[in-house]
Amino acid sequence: MRREDLIAFARRDWPAIEESKAAYWLERKRRLGRGEAFRAAEDLRRFAAAVRPGWPDDEARAEDLATHVAVGESLRLVDVDRPR
Predict the structure, then answer these.
(1) Residues in contact with 48: Cβ distance below 8 Å, sequence separation at least 6, in sequence order
(2) 3-state secondary structure of 52
(3) What DSSP character marks residue 46?
């Protein structure tokens, strides 16, 4: 890789790229619906299983569940009626 290439990469308009990606995925979700999200998740799960057979193990599942419980508890504390 050339020095100029690295500099050009670092100087990219990262906020514009992030905005463009967000718009792309929002439109894709609107167009394809929830089924597409589930298909994408299943594709990722299959890929992970292919590169790491036996994943997730019991420990990973327990950690994942603990994270979901903690997020759920945090969300229940949010006052959705409070004006912003």
Answers:
(1) 55
(2) coil
(3) H
29 Cβ neighbours under 8 A, 6+ residues apart: 36, 37
Q: How far apart are the first and last CA of the chain?
A: 48
pTM of the model: 0.44
Length of the chain counted residue by residue: 84
Is-contact 55 49, C-beta < 8 A?
yes
DSSP E strand stretches across the chain: none
Q: Which two tokens stand for residue 77?
A: 């504390």
CA quadruple 34, 36, 41, 45: dihedral positive or negative? positive
Tokens 């997730």, residue?
Answer: 56
**Distance in angstroms (rounded) separating the CA atoms of residues 71 and 65:** 10
pLDDT level of residue 83 (50, 70, 90 thresholds): low
